[in-house]
């Protein structure tokens, strides 16, 4: 494709529109004319929309999936009223420590201060993506030649829908589009409050990497208030190594004895280290101890809570110039141009590219900058025997990209508090005590959220790390928790309640009833709040009303947060709903029960076939499955990927109908798991998941007919009904998977066991967590400062073993062709190796040099074998680079390992093969990477001809071709997991569920396997 410059030609004559008469440049005239002709129709649609909103609001309390609530002006979104205050009282954008923020005194910036709308935004925000408002938009056309995007849709429908409706995924009509649009170009449409026009980018130019911090805002002594960088690095080491006071003193005495130059090292004892941490305590908001008193029966019970107020903690990150370039302040919608259909396809990944953020921002004043949070809470066992528990609250700022906020470094998730644990063996199980525990939880959470509630109403003016004054409106966008904790947050009665879902009003006995869209109304916080506050509801009538909705008669803390819908914020949790729930506790349990009934011989054969499965990089290898239990969800996730292909022959329809139908259920579940884990979603993938829900439901119903003893009426079998709505509203599930926060439980357990005296646990862990926050800030400052220093230009080193997207590693010493043939005399795949290589090289690489005669290879010529390949490839899910690690070795970790691959046969065809040898060879002065393979052929059977088993269980069938082949090693595009078919001699099975890219790649390149 020739390089072209994005823009318009200078001096183009304008042409009048045939509808309105206004003049436009030719490039944008067609789009304008279409939009202009529809203007009256859109205006009429707006009127109908307003009328239907009014009708819907008065007749219904719920919305259906894929249909967000109508945008309305909320009472709390009133104009900002400034408080008179002098400029010097405003917090500094960046100081050595946490800015001195006076939350009680807040005012707009001085007239000469930088404003967000006037500042040139960093380039990465242009490319962060955009989400759809739930109101039809038809911006007035302009003749300034700027690109505009018009959305023509309505999202309010009087009648329930049985099919998924995604109005905000409709492509926009572009006015004044660039003339050089190409396939796979990107379009970013920014929220109107950002005051930025849409932008387009060629695929190769589109990057969402944030720029580096402004060097002028970085200190040249970033380790302060530590006396030196060496002091900080020692304190950081002691903290990360979980050294206690005595161990630090001993280590320092040893250092003192062996050190020569102590100029940069001032520590002499643990007291010095402790003092350094205390001196640095101002760098991040510290935990405060709060006393909480709640009445129970005839007494008042007192609890302690340690927390750092959520809003103050987030301001310390907002103010930091290191993180400033990574913040996205306004909602976006992202589109990618489909080269085949020439249509813009919207995709979502981050929360700010999804609908809920866009909706929330649309309700705010136009000067508002949303500051969005994800909040997680869950109990964890700190001690090995479970006698000591912790109840951490972990917060993340959703304005930061997922790789930052979900990471372990600065800007990632932070423990912002510890909830009190309410236990009383004498009262446990009593209705009053159950209510009491929930009352304590919500009163304690208010301590954390009080400042958020205060500033979510009118906004808080603040100078951010980029020097821009913004009026921040904090909002709780996502709540992350397992089912037990979601029941606590939503104040429902749990799995035995009449309506056990925290999101919708599905009856307890209808949780197996799944559809492409939710079949039952969403919960409405206004309804719940009105019931709690209704003075006319008393006694049995009150209890009956709350029971009918599955609610507890308590005030919910999230009602106090302006704009927060707790039921909409609660999010589907992949870890607990799928890997550690639906599969581990139900599907896998059913499988093991069936195996036990079939007897020991089948059990041993199942374990043998599981153990015989080939290894695959990044996937756990299992030696048994018949009775094993795992301690973490990841192993359940991995065994689900391969179990159907590994043992389907032992649970055939003829052997055990129940077992066969269960494998069918597992296959349908694994497909849903693959789709749920996609990091980027398009309309087509959301629809695939919705239709997959129905197919899963049908498989469960079929299984229930032969085994009615198993009940599938439980919340985790219902919860994935709401995932499509969560994706549309909040982005990809990676943003609300509790896995991101549960990995922090391990750190808390280590702190408890290694750095506390097992007394007053919350206080001690809070102190050490505060030190960890300071260490992350200081480390980030040092790295940013070092990165900003000028560096001499280093000449790029040419890697002779890098060939396009592949790198050949684990190389052996050069060996002759003769030696290879002698060494492999027992392996028929190496028969005529030298002659085959000679024919391959002459036929493939001599065509371009026809003047060369046929060149014969000599036995003494050398090859360099490689036992490892690193293959970079473009993910079909994220369009970013991913990497496979491939082995081709007669002995890897004690066993032979010859991985399988997908390789490019020609521009339109891909094939499968098992590697036998990978090497480089010099031919006519050029080194070529070459792979000796045993190729497979895809069993090309039409869908109607494929066996029922292959279709039901999604078996991707292959057969080995005769002999071996030589291919260019750089034609390898990905690793593949291919296993022997234990049910049909001579066949092999390609496993499409090893990861999300493989799953979508198979459906693109091998559509016959789309089952």
Calculate the terminal CA-CA distance, rounded to whole Å.
36 Å
Shape: globular
Instruction: Indicate the mean pLDDT.
Output: 83
The largest β sheet comes out as: 14 strands, antiparallel
**Estimated radius of gyration:** 31 Å
Query: Strand content of the residues, in percent?
Result: 15-25%
User: How much helix is in the residues?
Assistant: 25-40%
The total count of strands amounts to 32
Structural class, by secondary structure, is: alpha+beta
Low-confidence stretches: 1-12, 40-105, 107-143, 154-160
Count up the helices: 28
Account of the protein in words:
Mean pLDDT is 83; it is low at 1-12, 40-105, 107-143 and 154-160. Helix 15 (574-598) runs antiparallel to helix 18 (657-676). 34% of the residues lie in helices and 18% in strands. With 1011 residues, the chain is an alpha+beta fold. Strand 16 and strand 17 form a beta hairpin. It is globular, with a radius of gyration of 31 Å. Strands 19, 20, 21, 22, 23, 24, 25, 26, 27, 28, 29, 30, 31 and 32 form a 14-stranded antiparallel sheet that branches. A seven-stranded mixed sheet has the order 7-8-15-14-11-17-16. The protein has a five-stranded antiparallel sheet with strand order 6-5-9-10-18.
């Amino acid at each position: 494709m020739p390089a072209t410059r994005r823009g318009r030609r200078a001096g183009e004559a304008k042409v009048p529109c045939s509808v309105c008469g206004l003049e436009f440049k030719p490039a944008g005239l067609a789009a304008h004319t279409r939009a202009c002709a529809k203007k009256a129709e859109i205006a009429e649609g707006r009127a109908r929309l307003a009328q239907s909103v009014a009708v819907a609001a008065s007749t219904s309390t719920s919305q259906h999936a894929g249909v967000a609530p109508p945008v309305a002006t909320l009472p709390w979104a009133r104009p900002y009223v400034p408080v008179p205050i002098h400029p010097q009282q405003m917090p500094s954008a960046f100081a050595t420590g946490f800015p001195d923020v006076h939350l009680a005194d807040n005012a707009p910036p001085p007239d000469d201060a930088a404003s967000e709308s006037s500042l040139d935004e960093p380039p990465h925000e242009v490319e962060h993506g955009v989400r759809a408002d739930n109101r039809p938009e038809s911006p007035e056309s302009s003749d300034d030649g700027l690109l505009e995007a018009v959305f023509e849709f309505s999202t309010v429908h009087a009648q329930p829908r049985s099919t998924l409706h995604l109005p905000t995924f409709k492509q926009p009509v572009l006015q004044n589009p660039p003339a050089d649009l190409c396939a796979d170009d990107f379009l970013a449409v920014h929220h109107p409050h950002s005051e930025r026009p849409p932008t387009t980018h060629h695929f190769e130019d589109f990057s969402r990497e944030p720029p580096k911090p402004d060097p002028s805002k970085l200190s040249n002594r970033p380790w302060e208030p530590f006396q030196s960088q060496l002091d900080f690095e020692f304190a950081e080491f002691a903290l990360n190594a979980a050294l206690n006071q005595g161990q630090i003193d001993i280590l320092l005495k040893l250092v003192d004895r062996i050190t020569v130059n102590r100029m940069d090292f001032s520590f002499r004892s643990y007291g010095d280290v402790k003092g350094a941490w205390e001196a640095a305590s101002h760098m991040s908001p510290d935990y405060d101890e709060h006393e909480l008193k709640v009445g129970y029966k005839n007494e008042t019970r007192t609890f302690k809570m340690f927390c750092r107020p959520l809003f103050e903690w987030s301001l310390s990150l907002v103010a930091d110039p290191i993180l400033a370039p990574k913040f996205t302040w306004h909602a976006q919608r992202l589109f990618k141009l489909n080269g085949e259909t020439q249509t813009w396809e919207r995709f979502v990944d981050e929360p700010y590219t999804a609908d809920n953020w866009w909706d929330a921002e649309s309700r705010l004043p136009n000067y508002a900058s949303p500051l969005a949070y994800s909040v997680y809470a869950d109990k964890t066992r700190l001690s090995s025997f479970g006698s000591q528990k912790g109840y951490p609250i972990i917060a993340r700022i959703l304005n930061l990209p997922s790789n930052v906020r979900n990471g372990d470094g600065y800007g990632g998730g932070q423990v912002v508090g510890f909830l009190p644990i309410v236990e009383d063996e004498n009262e446990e199980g009593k209705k009053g005590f159950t209510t009491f525990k929930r009352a304590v939880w919500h009163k304690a959470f208010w301590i954390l959220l009080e400042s958020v509630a205060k500033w979510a109403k009118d906004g808080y003016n603040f100078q951010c790390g980029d020097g821009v004054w913004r009026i921040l409106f904090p909002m709780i966008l996502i709540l992350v928790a397992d089912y037990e904790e979601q029941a606590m947050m939503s104040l429902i009665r749990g799995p035995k309640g009449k309506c056990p879902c925290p999101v919708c009003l599905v009856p307890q006995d209808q949780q197996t009833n799944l559809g492409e869209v939710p079949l039952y109304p969403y919960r409405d916080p206004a309804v719940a709040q009105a019931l709690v506050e209704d003075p006319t509801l008393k006694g049995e009538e009150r209890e009956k009303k709350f029971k009918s909705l599955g609610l507890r008669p308590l005030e919910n803390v999230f009602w106090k947060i302006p704009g927060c819908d707790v039921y909409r914020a609660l999010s589907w949790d992949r870890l607990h709903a799928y890997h550690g729930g639906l599969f581990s506790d139900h599907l896998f349990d059913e499988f093991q029960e069936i195996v036990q009934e079939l007897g020991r011989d089948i059990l041993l054969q199942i374990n043998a076939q599981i153990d015989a499965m080939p290894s695959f990089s990044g996937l756990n290898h299992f030696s048994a499955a018949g009775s094993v239990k795992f301690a973490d969800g990841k192993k359940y996730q991995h065994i689900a990927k391969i179990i159907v292909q590994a043992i389907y022959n032992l649970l055939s329809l003829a052997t055990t109908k129940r077992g066969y139908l269960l494998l069918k259920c597992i296959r349908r579940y694994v497909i849903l798991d693959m789709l749920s884990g996609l990091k980027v979603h398009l309309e087509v993938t959301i629809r695939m998941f919705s239709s997959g829900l129905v197919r899963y439901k049908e498989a469960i119903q079929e299984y229930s007919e032969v085994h009615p003893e198993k009940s599938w009426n439980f919340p985790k079998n219902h919860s994935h009904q709401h995932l499509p709505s969560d994706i549309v509203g909040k982005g990809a599930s990676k943003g609300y998977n509790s896995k991101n926060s549960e990995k922090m439980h391990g750190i808390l357990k280590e702190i408890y066991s290694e750095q506390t005296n097992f007394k007053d646990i919350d206080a001690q862990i809070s102190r050490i967590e505060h030190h960890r926050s300071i260490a992350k800030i200081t480390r980030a400052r040092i790295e940013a400062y070092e990165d900003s220093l000028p560096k001499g230009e280093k000449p790029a080193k040419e890697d002779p073993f890098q060939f396009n997207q592949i790198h050949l590693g684990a190389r052996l010493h050069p060996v002759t062709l003769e030696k290879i043939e002698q060494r492999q005399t027992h392996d028929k795949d190496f028969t005529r190796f030298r002659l085959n290589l000679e024919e391959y090289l002459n036929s493939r690489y001599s065509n371009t040099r026809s003047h060369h005669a046929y060149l014969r290879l000599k036995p003494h010529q050398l090859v360099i074998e490689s036992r490892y390949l690193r293959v970079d490839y473009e993910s079909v899910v994220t369009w970013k680079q991913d990497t496979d690690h491939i082995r081709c070795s007669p002995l890897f970790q004690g066993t032979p390992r010859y991985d399988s691959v997908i390789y490019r046969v020609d521009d339109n065809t891909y094939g499968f093969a098992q590697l036998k040898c990978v090497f480089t060879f010099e031919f006519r002065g050029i080194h070529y990477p070459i792979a000796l393979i045993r190729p497979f052929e895809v069993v090309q059977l039409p869908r109607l001809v494929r066996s029922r088993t292959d279709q039901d269980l999604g078996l991707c069938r292959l057969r080995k071709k005769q002999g071996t082949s030589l291919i260019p090693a750089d034609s390898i595009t990905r690793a593949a997991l291919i296993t022997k078919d234990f049910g049909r001699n001579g066949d092999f099975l390609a496993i499409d569920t090893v990861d999300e890219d493989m799953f979508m790649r198979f459906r693109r390149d091998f559509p016959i396997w789309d089952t």
